[in-house]
Amino acid sequence: MIAFICQTCGVQHAPVPDHPDTPPQHCPICEDERQYVGHDGQRWTTTEELLAGGRHNEVTEVETGLTTINTVPSFAIGQQAHLVRTPVGNLLWESISLCDPATIDRIRERGGIDAIAISHPHFYSAMVEWSHAFGGVPIWLHAADREWVMRPDPAIRYWEGETADPLPGSGLLLIRVGGHFLGSTALYWPDGANGRGVLFSGDMPQVAQDRRWVSFLYSYPNMIPLSAAEVRRIADTLAAYRFDRIYGSWTGRIVSSDGSAVVARSADRYVEHVNRET
Ligand SMILES: [Zn+2]
Ligand SMILES: [Zn+2]
Question: Is the peptide bond before 205 cis (omega within 30 degrees of 0)?
């Protein structure tokens, strides 16, 4: 039974019971208006093919207690994962499609994974493989996005409401921000950036190319905006937390300081633009 991986969004799908060696027909995540089917049509791959093609993961320390995991050469939409290490355990924030023994060893050297949390379906990737590699640790997903889970598994823990505590005693907090997906989630790490606070924003908000700013879109690849009211709501939700640094979804998308103020002034700029009459 092969769990195929969509080449465009990187999400792994459950094997098809009657056709264990045949990929699915469709990827609903890519067919959704927030994503896109690859320009050459729907294509699939496997973990074995990714490795045979020369892909591997780079594991890099970025600040005290924080490691990034990136696939090289980049795969799908270039997802990266962060391993946040705390005195009470380690959380894998986001997931990537390539889960291989070499990377599992590198993570074990850093204390392993006690829980996984993911911002939204564009980062579900091979989350079930990562959980199984570390004994079936829980995967925290917001229940509002349940329909987008392509590979169901008993390890998935659907949470509801506005916040959740995936690793009690760690200080880490999952915050539902919505906007991009109903259940879009950010991770707050108050001890990060030497105690000045870190927000892992997922895609909501997304760190802009000018890293003094963030933005708020319903779809990034298809450039579909959110309403002013929705952006205001998201900024108000995040205003309850103090953070200096923001790590966005993709490599290098980092707001290095003054993160809380960056979100506030970016929301003001966005609202001012979409409310212009000419
Ligand atoms: Zn896909
Ligand atoms: Zn996304």
Answer: yes
What is the whole-number distance in angstroms between the Cα of residue 10 and the centre of ligand 2?
12
The token duo for 218 is: 């319903």
CA of 264 to the centre of ligand 1 (A): 33
Residue 94's φ and ψ, nearest 5 degrees, are 75, 175
Reduced DSSP (H G I as helix, E B as strand, rest coil) percent helix, strand, coil of the chain, to 5: 25, 25, 50
Q: In this structure, what token pair is assigned to residue 79? A: 């997802």
Residue 109 to residue 32: CA distance in whole angstroms: 38
CA 277 to ligand 1 center in whole angstroms:
37
Distance CA 191, CA 243 (A): 10
Q: What is the pTM of this model?
A: 0.97
Which residues are paired to 125 by β-bridges?
none
What CA–CA distance (Å, rounded) separates 178 from 184?
4
Ligand 1 geometric centre to CA of 128 (Å) = 16
Q: Which helix (H) or strand (E) holds 70?
A: strand 66-72
User: 31: CA distance to ligand 1 center in Å?
Assistant: 7
pLDDT (tens digit, 9 = 90+) per residue, 59-95? Answer: 999 999 999 999 999 999 999 999 999 999 999 999 9
Give the homologous superfamily in CATH for domain 5-274: Ribonuclease Z/Hydroxyacylglutathione hydrolase-like (3.60.15.10)
The bound ligand whose nearest atom lies closest to the alpha carbon of 45 is 1
Domain boundaries, the chain: 5-274
